[in-house]
Structure formats: C-alpha cells, structure tokens
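ARCHIVE CARD
CATEGORY: sequence design from structure
SOURCE FIELD: tokenized fold
FIELD CONTENT:
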C-alpha cells in the first residue's frame, strides 16, 4: 500500500508491505487515521492506524472482531462502518483527540444483500449524518445461474 503526496513533489511513499493482502485504504475526514482491511489472521479484518506526514504510525488497532471488509468513515469521523463477514452492516463509534484513538465494539446494524464477501470494491456509501445508506443490493435469488451474454448477436439474425 502506497501514499501519494498531492502537494509539492508527487512522490510515492510505501505504507504497508507484508506477505498479507492489505487493501481498501480509507483516510479519515481529518486525515489523521487510515482504515483498511488485511488478511493476516486468515480472514479479512478491519484495522486503523495513525497517519501523519505521509507515514503510518505503529499503533495498529484491530477494529473488527469476526471479519470485515470495506471500511467507510462517517463524514465527521465519529463513526466507522464496514461489512461484517456475514454481510451485516457494522458500525463502531470513534473518539479521537491529541493523538488518541478510542472505539466501541462493533455493532451489527442490519443485514445486507451485497457481494461484499466476494470483492473489495465499495458497494455502499453513507449520508453525512450516518443515518442513511446507499447500498448496491442483489436482486433475486443469489443461487440463480449467471446470465448468458451473446456477442455479435446481429450476425445471428442474418442466418
């Protein structure tokens, strides 16, 4: 995982480099904390580390307790949302100040019907007040066969 300075010389800085998959970085609204997912426990979990001057601090905190993907900060930085291993929307309250970071145990808000366990793209966003969600939702039976795509179908009409 790299950081790219948007001011001055556009220089890449290595943030994380381990044998594990560390992905989906999300910088807090105040720019002081980086949330991301990593699989060093054997499953994806959500972590937060301090972030200053383009570098991560050594204060890595495990936020999720039973797996998690796709962290998203509330616009004021007082809450962090993510998708639990069971597909539930999870939330933890955040309190920061003077370099400190405190959080509550994650709580399940509601079940989702999204592909969160299969990819790492963001399929949801939160309103600025953290009260409404926009979620890419599966429609229909999740065990249905995949659609068939026919390429060059106009040529078939000529036969």
């Amino acid at each position: 995982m790299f950081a790219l300075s948007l001011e001055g010389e556009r220089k890449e800085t290595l943030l994380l480099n381990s044998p594990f998959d560390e992905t989906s970085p999300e910088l807090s609204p105040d720019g002081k904390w980086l949330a991301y997912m990593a699989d060093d426990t054997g499953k994806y979990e959500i972590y937060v580390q301090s972030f200053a001057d383009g570098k991560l601090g050594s204060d890595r905190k495990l936020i999720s307790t039973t797996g998690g993907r796709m962290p998203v900060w509330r616009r004021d930085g007082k809450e962090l949302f993510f998708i639990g291993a069971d597909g539930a929307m999870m939330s933890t309250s955040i309190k920061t100040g003077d370099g400190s970071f405190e959080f509550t145990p994650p709580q399940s808000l509601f079940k989702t019907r999204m592909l969160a366990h299969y990819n790492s793209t963001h399929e949801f966003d939160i309103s600025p007040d953290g009260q409404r969600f926009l979620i890419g939702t599966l429609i229909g039976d999740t065990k249905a066969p995949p659609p068939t795509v026919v390429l060059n179908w106009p040529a078939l009409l000529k036969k």
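CARD ANNOTATION: The first strand starts at residue 2 and ends at 4. The longest helix spans residues 153-157.
SHELF: design records, drawer C
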